Amino acid sequence: xxxxxxxxxxxxxxxxxxxxxxxxxxxxxxxxxxxxxxxxxxxxxxxxxxxxxxxxxxxxxxxxxxxxxxxxxxxxxxxxxxxxxxxxxxxxxxxxxxxxxxxxxxxxxxxxxxxxxxxxxxxxxxxxxxxxxxxxxxxxxxxxxxxxxxxxxxxxxxxxxxxxxxxxxxxxxxxxxxxxxxxxxxxxxxxxxxxxxxxxxxxxxxxxxxxxxxxxxxxxxxxxxxxxxxxxxxxxxxxxxxxxxxxxxxxxxxxxxxxxxxxxxxxxxxxxxxxxxxxxxxxxxxxxxxxxxxxxxxxxxxxxxxxxxxxxxxxxxxxxxxxxxxxxxxxxxxxxxxxxxxxx
Amino acid sequence: xxxxxxxxxxxxxxxxxxxxxxxxxxxxxxxxxxxxxxxxxxxxxxxxxxxxxxxxxxxxxxxxxxxxxxxxxxxxxxxxxxxxxxxxxxxxxxxxxxxxxxxxxxxxxxxxxxxxxxxxxxxxxxxxxxxxxxxxxxxxxxxxxxxxxxxxxxxxxxxxxxxxxxxxxxxxxxxxxxxxxxxxxxxxxxxxxxxxxxxxxxxxxxxxxxxxxxxxxxxxxxxxxxxxxxxxxxxxxxxxxxxxxxxxxxxxxxxxxxxxxxxxxxxxxxxxxxxxxxxxxxxxxxxxxxxxxxxxxxxxxxxxxxxxxxxxxxxxxxxxxxxxxxxxxxxxxxxxxxxxxxxx
Lengths: 344, 344
Hints:
alpha/beta; eleven-stranded mixed sheet
């Protein structure tokens, strides 16, 4: 497989991206990594890493999309940016998977514009890994790409998320839950009620509504919600976890006795820190475009970049895009039939 | 002041409600508490408590609205229920404040039906205390009463919340924040954008959009959002905090060494538990109806009931309802003028 990596995307690029690529290349010798970006800078980093293998290639792209760039404008006006070049290579079959840690908005917009939507998908979307302390992580869709969603968008999110988890994470028959005010079907907005009805016809393991309280306990494999609610879930979880851990940390620093206790708890505290480390789960997919694209965190270290590459491989090899296309067309037929029956 | 208490509302009623009333009565001798409910049961509890004072009165109500009752039906079909009798007494001037730990939906619906909306308020709402670890708590409006909201509803929520915090919590010039995807005015849905514009004209200390990440750090005194998002914020915070503390607790129980450390940390861990204790902040107000109504948690202990009564007194004495009415009418004029100017 040929993996295209945006060498310039992320806060610490190209240093950490190249280092991550080198580490990954050592582990996945049967695959090739194509780093796109400023050739001289990337080659210099490869040299610093002392890379001796033959499964990293560099493709020059002279421009960079920054975090401050406006997504649509950047994609249109920076054809030589590493992100744009990488997406075009994916479109043109010069690679099988594209990863970037760059401007999220630009990556979503660029994927839509350059790769186009999958037939039958109305709205491509960015998913996000939702870490559950003490449980396997969930996949949350939509992570914030579109504030509002119609029922058929939510259905798309759930279907695509389910296929992704099964094929890329290797979790069979993943459960799909719809974020709602309560477990009863009658709860929520007109949109969630309509989505609930559609989900019951979809070829996914739909477990119904899930309340936000259940999410941190791994309530379902795929968390479905609009981008506004998705943003609230992700950001609030992050903020609250940070706040609680800070308070705990301060309590451990109260006096000599608590400091001694903290010392005795060191292995457990380290473990706890590890549990919060999202990096090991890899990047987050853009779903619904004609090509596998993965976003990793802008602040990713080399180790996170490496994980994103290795864990992302099945997205490039498992025909996820084709399966989404077929499933969506089948589902549309089912729903049309149902609507005809309801009208009759 | 005469404080009307639904003696039968809550999981542990009338035992905990009566005990809470007795404790409160001892501290606020200048006020009278009227407990509404089954007279024999309440008098028996008063006797158990050994109450000797003269500032508790009992008013008989032979029926009870249960947690399973459907709100609208219950209010219509159970005219003798303690909640209905209490609300009617408040409406008829036989008391100055009403508190209940009963069925939340019934209390919201009953308040709307029996007390009616304040002139100028389109939608009464249930607020909730949002506890911030290490910071003063915020007031979140809407806590989940209505899944969807229009811009003018959000504006009402913010205005009413601001008046409540200033008058009842005694916090001057409270800050009002609109939950949104990002800090920029252009972010969010058409509803949040419209609400943002209106808030800038409102007589509140509007600090603009707040991201969910900032909420646990006490980002603003009044958190404004629709009931769907409010429910997600409240329930997710509860679930996540519980999950993190459970994981921490398990880590403390790993082996003898960690158990010893836990023992050394006992005072700090107790403190932490106290920080999570929402009961000390009192109950949550229903805002926008013609009378001060406070909801306390169904699982409230006597101590929580006592706190809800004592901390709720200013809601009965500070003319909050009148101030909301006047402020809302003034604001409507401002907005109408603005809209005329925009049309011109």
